[in-house]
Design goal:
It is built from three helices and no strands. It is an all-alpha fold and 115 residues long. It has one domain. The longest helix has 25 residues.
């Protein structure tokens, strides 16, 4: 029997694995307030966030359309201009990951203006 939602497992598996991989770092961050994360886990978070910002089902070429077909060349990643979500860890350099982490830490360190 065919799965009723063919691309659903793949689309949910990567974020679930990334969350499970980041969970120990998040727990350490709460305990020590100084998160120690690997570059690969940072890149995975960046990739998940960039794909989540895409509104439709076809952020990356390997994602699936509602009818179960691969997105391929119709994905946002494959189109010229517009959104360009990260679809592979190799697309994110170590320098980009470090810059993202530093920017996020600065944003978290800023005091909020609401009481």
């Amino acid at each position: 029997m065919r799965h009723p939602f063919p691309g659903l497992r793949r689309r949910l598996l990567l974020p679930l694995v990334a969350v499970c991989a980041l969970l120990p770092a998040l727990v350490r961050a709460q305990a020590t307030e100084a998160p120690i994360e690997s570059l690969d886990s940072i890149k995975a978070t960046m990739m998940i966030e960039s794909q989540a910002r895409h509104a439709g089902p076809c952020a990356c070429p390997d994602h699936r359309k509602a009818n179960g077909a691969r997105c391929g060349g119709t994905s946002a990643h494959s189109r010229a201009g517009g959104q360009r979500p990260y679809c592979a860890l190799a697309e994110i350099s170590d320098a980009m990951a470090v810059d993202w982490l530093l920017t996020r830490q600065k944003a978290l360190a800023r005091p909020s203006s609401t009481p």
